[in-house]
From TrEMBL:
Name of the coding gene: tdh
Keyword presence, Oxidoreductase: yes
Name of the protein this chain belongs to: L-threonine 3-dehydrogenase
Similarity comment: family membership: Belongs to the zinc-containing alcohol dehydrogenase family.
Span of domain Enoyl reductase (ER): 33-381
Alphabetical list of InterPro entries matching this protein: ADH-like_C, ADH-like_N, ADH_Zn_CS, ER, GroES-like_sf, NAD(P)-bd_dom_sf, Zn_alcohol_dh
Pfam family, one: ADH_N
Cofactors: Zn(2+)
Transmembrane feature ranges: none
EC class name: oxidoreductase
EC nos: 1.1.1.103
UniProt region (Disordered), positions on chain: 1-21
Sample GO molecular function, one term: zinc ion binding
Amino acid sequence: MHDDAMTTSKPAASASRGLGDELPDTMRAWVLGGPDELSLQSKPMPVPGRAEVLVRIDAVAICATDLEVISYGTPAMIEGGAPFNKNFTPGHEYMGTVAALGPGVDEFRVGERVTVEIHAGCGQCKRCRMGMYTSCHNYGMNYGDHDKGHRANGFTTNGGFAEYAVNNINTLIRVPDQMSDEEATLVVTAGTSMYGLTELGGLVAGESVVVIGPGPIGLLAVAVAKALGASPVILIGTRESRNAIGQKLGADHVIDARSEDVVARVKELTGKGADYVVDCAGTETTVNQAVHMTNRGGRICLAAFPKSAVSFDLGALAVNNIYLYGIRGEGKSATHRAMAFMEAGRFDASLVHTHTFPLDDLPTALKHARERIDDAIKVVVSNQPGITGGAKGK
Ligand SMILES: [Zn+2]
Ligand SMILES: [Zn+2]
């Protein structure tokens, strides 16, 4: 699947660098000072506790939410407040190699390649007991007298822009040998798309699915919906290059939001409107479009975090018996299901990976992601030796 030998890391490059007995006492990690102030520092090597392992981070993808956290703090929350000047390391979409085991861990071995999901719930609240650990009622309660054991690396605990991180075993997914580091970082993104579709009902074979917004989650929502048998799958976006990737990932139709009446076009393609709409843009315009393009009794998933209050046609929602679901992250083991599709080659998630840079060049990588330089979609930062940095395949 990969013809991009130049900048795509293969598992062979991992070797046994920095694992087990070779573990150093300190590691390099990017630390968030004030807003937009990141510095590369030396930190003590984290130590895994019960039901945890130490992961040597081999690659970490940049998410739009990382950019939010670094500039505005939310939705990260460290010790009950903003994450600034708390020795906090952001980054949450990473993969790597098991480097050490906590006491009693026999579920994994040192040297196994793993990718991670973000949230390890407290395991004891009402939502965790339902499998909704991304909505844990003890979110961020992992310090002082409040310590309920919740972890969301890169949000409430240290994350992946570093050489190592500690993960609860429940957040680990094994990576098959043939999958590149970069593709493995995308499993959690596909898992978020999977979770959204699961919450909408899951059995989408033969149902129409519209995805608004061809960012990484939107593009992989197209891929997952197609793999689940949805028909037709329709993608709405404003960038032709991204809509084209959506077609490669399985969109039956793409709609250019700049030149077409998207609601009319969806109705034309589906008859009475869409059964399911996944809004990955989260703007006032797209939320209203979602409400008006969903058929009576249909369902909308809001997979984006709007920055401010959004005004929308609630009356149309009620009178048409439309359901609206807010989803957070990748609950109910959706990431494992996404990996099953990716391992089986049901879609090529690596189509959304565009750039790789070494960890030391994180600021350059963040700039590419933020400004979408060179049509950047998923920008990955790698710890593998020999990564020089730049666009995939160039
Ligand atoms: Zn993310
Ligand atoms: Zn919980």
